[in-house]
Design goal:
Diguanylate cyclase; 12 helices; 10 strands; alpha/beta; binds manganese (II) ion; 46% helix; binds sodium ion; binds guanosine-5'-monophosphate; 250 residues
Length: 250
């Protein structure tokens, strides 16, 4: 398959790029960090979305070297941001299981000089689906390093709640489908309020994803979420454009 062949070359040809989307802390009105989102600048196809190549990369095992590149690049970029701004990387199930994740992270932190407290790992339910001792051990090793761990796309899977019981996440990222329902469905705010309350009682921060309007942001603040991420604050932008985004916030 052509795409597969191209992807095998893409790392060496430096065709991958990270875009960054900031997260705003509601209480302080400051930006607390950014999520790294990979892009593939394909020579013929232009910018390819991760939705179109991450699943294939997972399937053929290429997610491991790609994921390593993401972690290293994200740490280097975050070193140029004001302390204590953090960077969040998405780690997919195959990468998580590869057994090199912790070593890669230790090496990326050492190589860049980024303190562990400024790195965040986002995992989805997929990682915990076949939860076993090793999965939990990896999560605890990350925690011991001082790296923070977030539960991504919260609420979309089958047993999000039970995962919160298995591991003490630092942050819950509320899936953007719930933010969409906030103003469009009669009881839309009930779910957000419940998750925000859950986060509060478990000592986890809660970030609402996909916030596009100021009306949504106001409601989210009222329901008790601590942070927001979405086009209202900024779209994901290349590292070079972040300076301007940072400048727009105190
Ligand atoms: O920006 P968006 O279209 O940017 O991202 C689409 C999906 O791709 C999201 O679910 C996101 O978590 C995933 N994604 C983006 N960047 C990465 C990455 O570096 N690694 C992995 N595993 N997934 C990513
Ligand atoms: O799955 P994950 O949460 O890691 O990926 C975040 C995805 O959400 C990315 O594809 C990103 O580009 C997208 N995204 C970020 N902010 C918004 C937003 O305000 N609206 C919509 N529709 N998508 C967003
Ligand atoms: Mn994410
Ligand atoms: Na998400």
């Amino acid at each position: 398959r052509k795409l597969e062949l191209d992807m095998r070359q893409a790392l060496a040809r430096r065709e991958f790029q990270l875009h960054y989307q900031p997260q705003l802390q509601l209480a302080s009105g400051t930006l607390i960090g950014c999520e790294a989102l990979i892009r593939w600048r394909h020579p013929d196809r232009g910018l390819v979305s991760p939705l179109d190549f991450i699943p294939l990369a997972e399937e053929i095992g290429l997610i491991v070297p790609i994921g390593e590149w993401v972690v290293r690049q994200a740490c280097r970029d975050a070193m140029t941001w004001p302390d204590p701004m953090s960077v969040a990387v998405n780690v997919s199930p195959a990468q998580f299981k590869s057994d090199r994740l912790v070593e890669t992270i230790i090496s990326a932190l050492a190589g860049s000089g980024l303190p562990a407290r400024r790195l965040e790992v986002e995992i989805t339910e997929g990682v915990l689906l076949q939860e076993n001792d090793r999965t939990l051990q990896t999560l605890h090793r990350l925690r011991e390093l001082g790296v923070r761990v977030s539960m991504d796309d919260f609420g979309t899977g089958y047993s999000s709640l039970s995962y919160l019981r298995s591991f003490p996440f630092d942050k819950i990222k509320i899936d953007r489908s719930f933010v969409k329902d906030l103003t469009s469905k009669p009881d839309g705010e009930a779910i957000i309020r419940a998750i925000a309350g859950l986060g509060k009682s478990l000592g986890m921060t809660t970030v609402a994803e996909g916030v596009e309007t100021s009306e949504q942001m106001q409601r989210i603040r009222l329901e008790g979420c601590t942070d927001v991420q979405g086009y209202l604050i900024s779209k994901p932008v290349p590292a070079e454009d972040l300076r301007q985004v940072f400048a727009a916030f105190p």
